[in-house]
Design goal:
Blueprint: E1 6-9, E2 12-15, H1 19-34, H2 47-62, H3 64-68, H4 71-81, H5 87-91, H6 93-97
Helix pairs in contact: 1-4, 2-4
């Protein structure tokens, strides 16, 4: 069984990779996709940058070594955090609390 194989067990699919291995591989692919940036679409900031920021910042809080191994993503995080328009948010209490789940989704009715 190779690292990328999944084993079918009944109706469930059991991966032979650990969560860490999967996270590392996903971030490696995402790092290549982001490229030299500074944003996902090159010089143009888009909503995708905020999606990537949210996803990767959660990983960074739990396992920073994964982000350390993804230089393009690390650069994207820094670039977004340094946007002048977002300084009030990043210096505010909600961001400093470091919640792992966006509070807006904790009461999602759907």
């Amino acid at each position: 069984v190779s690292d990328s194989d999944d084993l079918s067990v009944g109706k469930a699919v059991v991966s032979t990779q650990s969560t860490g291995e999967k996270t590392g591989k996903r971030l490696e692919m995402l790092d290549k996709y982001v490229g030299d940036g500074p944003f996902v679409l090159g010089e143009k900031l888009s909503y995708v940058d905020f999606m990537v920021f949210e996803y990767v910042s959660q990983i960074q809080k739990m396992a920073p070594e994964f982000v350390d191994n993804a230089p393009n993503i690390a650069k994207l995080l820094t670039t977004v955090q340094n946007l002048p328009e977002l300084q009030d948010y990043f210096s505010g209490e909600e961001f400093k609390k470091g919640t792992l789940i966006n509070p807006a989704f904790t009461s999602f009715p759907g």
